[in-house]
Every structure is written in structure tokens, then in C-alpha cells.
Amino acid sequence: MTDDAILEMRRITKEFPGVKALSGVDLVVRRGEVHAICGENGAGKSTLMNVLSGVYPHGSYEGDIVFDGDVCSFGKISDSERAGIVIIHQELALSPYLTLAENIFLGNERAKSGWISWTRTENEAAAHLRRVGLHDNPDTAAIDVGVGKQQLVEIAKALAKDVRLLILDEPTAALNDDDSAHLLDLILDLKDEGVTCILISHKLNEIKKVADRVTIIRDGRTIETLDHAEITEDRIIRGMVGRDLTSRFPDRTAQVGEELLRIADWTVHHPLHRSRVVVDHANVKVHAGEVVGIAGLMGAGRTELAMSVFGRSWGTNISGTVYKRGEPIDVRTVQAAVRHGLAYATEDRKQYGLNLIDDIARNISAAGLGKLSRGGWVDQNREHVVAERYRQQLRIKTPSVSAIVGKLSGGNQQKVVLSKWMYTDPDVLILDEPTRGIDVGAKYEIYTIINALAEQGKGIIVISSELPELLGICDRIYTLSEGVITADVPRAEASPERLMQYMTKVREEDHL
Amino acid sequence: MSATTSAPASQQGAPTPPEGALQATLAYLTGQLRQLGLFIALISIVIVMQFWTGGVTMSPRNVSNLVIQNSYILILAIGMVMVIIAGHIDLSVGSVVAVIGALAGVFNNKMGLPWLPTIILCLAAGALIGAWQGFWIAYFKIPAFIVTLGGMLAFRGLAQILLHNTQISPFDETFRKIGSGFLPDLGGGTSYMEPLTIILAIICVVALVVLGFAARRGRSRNGLSVEPFVWFLGKTVFVSALILVVAWRLALYRGTPIVLVILGILVIGYSAVMANTVFGRQIYAIGGNLRAAELSGVNARRTSFLLFVNMGVLAALAGLVFTAQLNLAGPSAGDGFELDAIAAVFIGGAAVTGGIGTVGGAIVGGLIIGILNNGMTILGVGTEWQQFIKGLVLLGAVAFDVFNKRRVNRSGS
Predict the structure, then answer these.
(1) Which member of A352, A356, A399 has the closest CB to residue B295?
(2) B 10-69 near A (Cβ less than 8 A)
């Protein structure tokens, strides 16, 4: 069994402060196969690949990596690349203004004592590009080729490094159907040439098409490895979502009132690739006292939908209307959105949610400063009283509201973000991944806060990658796939399998 | 630094378990190391210079000169610290000083306008210059470094054009007072000490103590923690002593320079703006995390725009003070002022990445540079060495900051 294995990862355990991302993961990849890894967002797939490629150096995790019969101890990415393991991340990493040839040999230059031989560079680059089916001039700037081709250039770059194990993390997430199909064919071609490939993907139809075997990871553990004959979409979904839902969520009886907010016919385009539709004629509504979920896989357009509604903070060429209690409202700026009683607590606390170098009190007051000031002067005593009130109410664990936010744990930072928006007394709160990166105990507290807000008659929209979470706290769940709302499921009719089906639904009427 | 105001950088005191008053106070002081270090550096430099110059540094005449000759850099530093806290920079202020000097010359000398219209027109011109640069920075998203580098070149050229590459002099008597004038001598020039200076100093100290206690009472009435009494007392006594010593030296010379009154009002006013107003908050917020501020409903464009208008007005004021002091408008006026102002801001503890800094810190930073300059000049140190030493002081101050931050972080996690 292990004779034909090119890679064996044994009992890999990786902990971050407060979170155990991987606990004893096993993975065996056979020589020359396409091995898919499946799991929900946050299941630990990316962490596992980062361990493998040396992003997390040897010693920062437990367990062994055996590649080609040798136990490996990679200290950095270049170590794993020297061994022939190349990872292509879902965010493309080409340097936009360098040429394709320069990109392909970036960090791996065709040079003699420091002097680059451009003839060799261009000739070899052209050869690698042909191998991935590209006939572009290697002298073209990377920015001038499309996203689909850039992905192929990344693969050419990997080939230039004499890759033996190619890891593709969501390679088709940003691609259209034609480019995706082309890429999958290429993976199969490379397989025939003897390149082993690990494919991380949410798109189950793609996995079915190319994968020889599938390993399913859930909550940082290996659940099972399926052989080719066993691979069906239902089987994978069952493996990905199967876990008990008991008593991880506080009880609540919903008292749903009038319609508070309705997002109608909402379409958003990508700010850089302006022709790409990221949210496609979405319709979402939320009633008073209701908790509505939005489920979708990475890249489905969840955050983009929320942020574009909240003051056009994301995207271009946005169309559609937002109604509040039946009246169309102007939400073109964040200020206007806040004035109309909207609040958006971001998925990325550190980048978009908090001023990490400032204290708790000033972060809490940041969005509602108008309520604390008269004639432009802030009443700092009241500000501290308010912050102190939220500290107690939400049980933010800190000795003082004058402590710097950057030093709090993730759960407490999230409570600061929630406090900030609760103080603006909004009618509708959009909570984007409200429990990302925080531990189970703090999650329960966040759910309790959400319930309390709903009881006050506010409308809550929760965006989450964790299906059990949505099933545990929502009254109704929208599923989003590739920017399209594919279903609106009441809680009573929702099951993880059903949601996952809608979430992975591709527009089959367009392409097969 | 006024005791009534404080800003994020000064509130990093990590609260500790109540083991004992002494430990608590010590722990608090450790949290205030940056602020403490700045004051200790200032005093050490004064003492060392006083010793080396054989007592000249703190002589009544020299203290008066120190205030007057550093005033325009300190005025620039106030505007600059706000710009830097917001995450921008302004390289053009030195050239703006020159343009405003030239304009003042044209208005006051060539056109014969009285002092008041001259000042008002010049401040308005400063606002216009600031609005021009702010427009490109805030609404066109061109980096401030580029816009103000362009301004630095363009306004220097404009000053030369206005002056036809010569100098304009003299200015009228009243106009010159904003640069080198003194408040009226209540002692009629015959008393041992000038009484008005002493009276003003006492008023300042009383206000400082009263407001300090009122702020403390306000906090404890709201059930909020107050800084340790020892720290509060030490700070109040220290600042009071500083005010009284300076006043004493000034009173032995010609009394209170008018520019010191202007500077005092600016320092108190802008400290309050930065610590207590919504506008001040928004400046810290966009400098600390621009996206988070925008997503919290801060109109970052407007804030940035207004910041540069404000910087323009303060640069114009500095230009007026400088021109009045020299009684001359020249095409090379203000050359390198932007670098002194920026250095003062960073010595004063502002973060290069924005979000952190105080007006008080920038003033102390400016004074450190000013006293070093002044002392070295008295000692006959050449300007080449002065430059060299100032450079090392700037690097040392920021290195201390980085080191201090790393130490705090390590003990924190």
C-alpha cells in the first residue's frame, strides 16, 4: 500500500493560539494520481497544505511528512520546492508587470553567475507555456493575459521547477466554465506525464471528473479516503457535513414581524475584472425579529453581496434597489447606510473591523460617535461609561476598556466589533462570519447575543461558512452559488446535505 | 503637555491586579515609558547644554531667543503631526512658508496694505494652497508624498516668481510684532521682573491644576478608573514647574513674546481638537485603519481634505511669523523647514504608519531639536556637525520607539 505512495503525511497536528486547526490528519497520495481534498471552509485543508509546503516550518507542527521515502523537515517554501512540491494558491501570485517568461522563472532564474540569459529564459518559458497549452508570446506582461491563462501560467511556472507533486488550491474558483474545463483537461494530461496532483476544490462535479481518490477532512481530522468507484457528490457531501448539532446553540423561539429590509435584483461586478458578475440579480429579505442565513462556499459572493449593499464598499457597476420597510433607501455611502439603520460587522476584523492600535472604548464608539458628541466635542466620560456597559453586557474579557484592541483574543475582538454596531442601534445587522477564528465557548456567547438582538425586533443576516452554525441559529437560509441565490430554505426544511447541494449547484443550463 | 488632554498613545497603561499602590504605580509608569522618556530626554538635553555652554542655554536672553527662533517650526509641527497621524505627509510646507512670505511682502510692502488685511489674506492663501493639495490627495487618491513633493517644487518656484528672485523688505512695525514682538511690559521697563509674564504663568498653572482635578473628578464620578495619583501629581508639578521656570527666565528679559501666546493657544487648542473632538477621532481612525474607519462611516476623504487645508493655514501662519521675524521676504525662506517639522513629529513619538502621535509630543520633539541646534550654535559647532547630530537623534528616537514597542509586545503575549 505504501510502496506506491509518493507522499505520506502521518498524524499531522497543528495548533494556533486558542485553536487546534489540525488534529492527527493522515493523508496518503499515490504516485501519479490526482488526489482531491474536500472539506468545508475552515476544515483545515489550507492549513494542511501550508504544513506540507513549508509555509509552517518543521517543528511548528507535530507528525511526519514522508515524501518519496524520505522524512522531510521543510523550514521554508523553497525547501519543499527543491524537493519537487509546488503549491498554487487560489489567489494568483503572478507579478503583474513582469512578462510571462520572467514570472515563470521568478526566483528560479536561468542565470550564470548572476547574469540572466534571456535567450534561455524565453525559449524555455515558451516550451513550458506550450506544455500547458498556451501559445502566447513569453514577452507578454502577465497583466495582459486573462485570469484563466494566468492560472495556466502558474502551472507552467510549477513545471519549470521540475514539479513532482503539484498542489492546486481552488484552481477554478476565479475561472469561467471554458477555462475551468481546459484546466481540468490539463490536470489529466499532466497525470499522463507522471505529475502527481493534489486538488483542493469545492466543485464536486470537477472532483468527480478528474480525481482518482478523495480524502475528506472535517474539523481538522481525516474522515475518510474514497476510491474512485465510491466518488459521488452525495457521498462527499455526507462526509463533509456529518456531525452532531446538539446543544451547541442557545434556544430561541422566533417572533417574526414585518419586513424590514429587502434587497432586490442586486447585481455587482468585480472592481478589477469589470466584466465578471460576482453577484447576479440577488433577492434577499429579512423581517423584524428574524435571523436569516446566507450559505455559500468560498468565492460564492457572500461578502461581496453584503459589502456592496453596505455603502457600496465593494464592487463596481452595482445595480438593484434596497427597500427598508417597503420604501426604497439610498445606501450609496456607508454614512447613508448607517443613517438608515444598517450595520455590517465584517468577516475580517483585523483589516476592516478594528483600529488595532487604539483602545477598546474608542473602537466601540467609532461608528456611533455622533451620539456621544455635541457640537463636534466628544464626551469622553460618557464614552467610557458606554464602553464599560458593553464590556459587562457582552462579557468582553479585559481588565479595562482602555486596553489596546490588538491585544485581545479573537472572540473578544469580535465582541468589540459587535459592540460598535450595537451602539449605533441599527434595525438590520449583517454579520459576516461572526464566529470565524474563535473558540467554541465564545461562539456560544456570540449566538446568545444574536438571539438577544433578534428578540429586540432587529433583523439579522448571518453569513457563515459553517452549515451547522446556520442551521443552529437561523430561521431561514439563502444559498448562494457563483453569485446566484439558488434557494431560500426555511429552517424546518433545511439539512446540511440539502444546503450543500444548492451551494454547489452550478448553472447547468449554461454549460455542462 | 496639558494635563487636560490625552491621546491614544498615552493610554497604553496596562492595568494591573491591585498588588499594592507602589507596584501599580510602577507598572503604570512602565506603560508610560514613551512619554516619560521624551520628557527625560528633553530635560537631560537642557541640563547637558546648560553645563556645556556655561549657563548660556538657560540665560534669560537665550530662553527668549529659543522661543522666538523655534516658533515657526513648532507651528509647522502641529499641523504636520496631524497629517502624519492620518497616514499622510506634507513635504511642501517649507515652500509654502516662502510663498506666503513673498505674498506678505507684496501686500504689506508693495501694495501698502496694513498688517491685519495682510495677515488675513495670507492665511486665506494658505487655506487655498492646502485645499489645492488636499483635493488631489483626498479626492484623486494621489499619494500625499507625490502631491506635496510637487507642491514643494511648484511653490518654491512660485515664491521666486512673486519676488522676481530678489528680496522684499522692510515690513511695517505692527506686522513685525507677530514675529519678534513682546506683550506690553507692565513694569514700564524698570521692574526687576516683567510682571505680566509672571501673572500669565500663574494663571496658566492655576488653570492646569483646576482643570486637571476637574477631569479626575469627572472620571471618578462616572465610575471610571483614574491614573495613579502619584503620576498625576508628578505630571502636574512637572508641567507647572516648567511653565514657571520659563516665565521666570522670560520675565528677566523682555517679557512674553507675542509668538509664544500664539503658540500656546495653538498647542492647547489643537491638543483638545485631537483628543476631544469627532474630527480628531476621525484623524486617528483613518490613520490607524483606513478601511475600518470608512466601514464605520467616517468620511475619510473629507477628513483628509480638511487636514491639508488646516496644514496650509498653519504653514501660512509659520510663514508670516518667519517673515515678520526676519523683516524680510526672500526666495529661499523656509528651505528645509519641512524636514525639521517632520523630524520633530517622529522624535515626538508619532508612528510612521499613522494612527499614533500627539501634538504635545511633536512640540517636545521640536524643542529637543531646537535646543540642540541652539546649544551647538553657542558652542560654535559647525552646521555640518549639527546636521549630522540631528540625524542621529532622529534615528535614535525612532529606534527607541521600535525597541520599546517590541519589549511591550513580548511581555504582553
Answers:
(1) A352
(2) 11-16
φ, ψ of residue B310 to 5 degrees: the values are -60, -45
- pLDDT truncated to tens, each residue of chain A (512 aa)? 445 889 999 999 998 766 678 989 999 999 999 999 988 767 788 889 989 988 899 888 999 999 988 898 898 888 898 899 999 887 777 888 889 999 999 888 888 888 888 999 999 999 999 988 888 899 999 888 887 888 889 999 999 988 999 999 888 877 777 788 889 999 999 999 889 999 998 788 889 899 999 999 988 889 899 998 888 888 888 888 765 444 578 888 888 999 999 999 999 998 888 888 999 999 999 999 999 999 988 778 999 999 999 999 999 999 999 999 999 999 999 999 999 999 999 988 888 999 999 999 999 999 999 999 999 999 999 999 999 999 998 888 888 898 899 888 778 899 999 999 999 999 999 999 998 777 667 788 899 999 999 999 999 999 988 888 899 999 999 999 989 999 999 999 999 889 988 988 875 544 43
- Cβ-Cβ contacts under 8 Å for A305 (sequence gap 6 or more): A263, A266, A268, A279, A282, A284, A294, A480
Q: Are residues A277 and A149 in the same domain?
A: no
Full domain range(s) for residue B365? 58-181+257-404
Label each residue of A281-292 as H, E or C: EEEEEEECCCEE
Indicate yes or no: CB of A407 within 8 angstroms of CB of B299: no
Q: Are A212 and A34 in contact (CB under 8 A)?
A: yes
CATH number, residue B312: 1.10.3470
Q: Are residues A138 and A223 in the same domain?
A: yes
Q: What is the DSSP string of B258-326?
A: HHHHHHHHHHHHHHHHHHHBHHHHHHHHHHH-HHHHHHTT--HHHHHHHHHHHHHHHHHHHHHHHHHHH
Contact B11 A359 (CB under 8 A): yes
| Structural domain count, chain B | 1
* Least Cα separation, residue A365 to chain B (angstroms): 10
Tell me if B206 is assigned to some domain.
no
Pairing of strands A476-481, A291-296: parallel
Amino acid at A78: S
Interface test with A, best of B286, B296, B298 (most A CBs within 10 A): B296
- B214 contacts chain A (CB < 8 A): no
Contacts of B88 (CB under 8 A, 6+ apart): B137, B144, B304, B307, B308, B354
Same domain, A292 and A252: yes
- Does residue B226 lie within any of the structural domains? no
Q: What is the DSSP letter of A359?
A: B
A74 and A154 part of one domain:
yes
Answer whether residue B197 is part of any domain.
no
Question: What is the Cβ-side half-sphere exposure of residue A105, based on CA atoms within 13 angstroms?
Answer: 21
Compare all CA atoms of chain A with the CA of B4 and give the residue at the minimum distance: A380
**The pTM is what?**
0.81
On whether both A228 and A283 belong to a single domain, the answer is: no
**Residue A348 located in a structural domain:** no
User: DSSP alpha helices (H): ranges in A193-242?
Assistant: 204-210, 233-241
Taking an 8 Å cut-off on Cβ atoms, the answer to whether B278 and A359 are in contact is no
Our count of domains for chain A comes to 3
B326 in any annotated domain: yes
Does the residue A475 lie in any domain?
A: yes
Verify that A195 and A153 share a domain, yes or no. Answer: yes
B412 touches chain A (CB under 8 A): yes
Domain-ending residue, one of A376, A398, A424: A424
| CATH assignment of the domain containing A334 | 3.40.50.300
Residues A448 and A488 reside in one and the same domain: yes
Reading the block at residue A39, the C-alpha cell is 472539506
Task: Note the ipTM here.
Answer: 0.83
The domain of A18 spans 5-241
> Which of A376, A399, A424 is at the close of a domain?
A424
For A381, which of B14, B219, B356 is closest by C-beta distance? B219
Q: How many beta-carbon contacts under 8 Å exist across A and B? A: 108
Q: Minimal Cα–Cα distance from B112 to chain A, Å?
A: 40
Which residues of chain A neighbour B296 with C-beta distances below 8 Å? 334, 366-367, 420
Q: Do A367 and B291 touch (CB under 8 A)?
A: no
Query: A435 and A287, same structural domain?
Result: yes
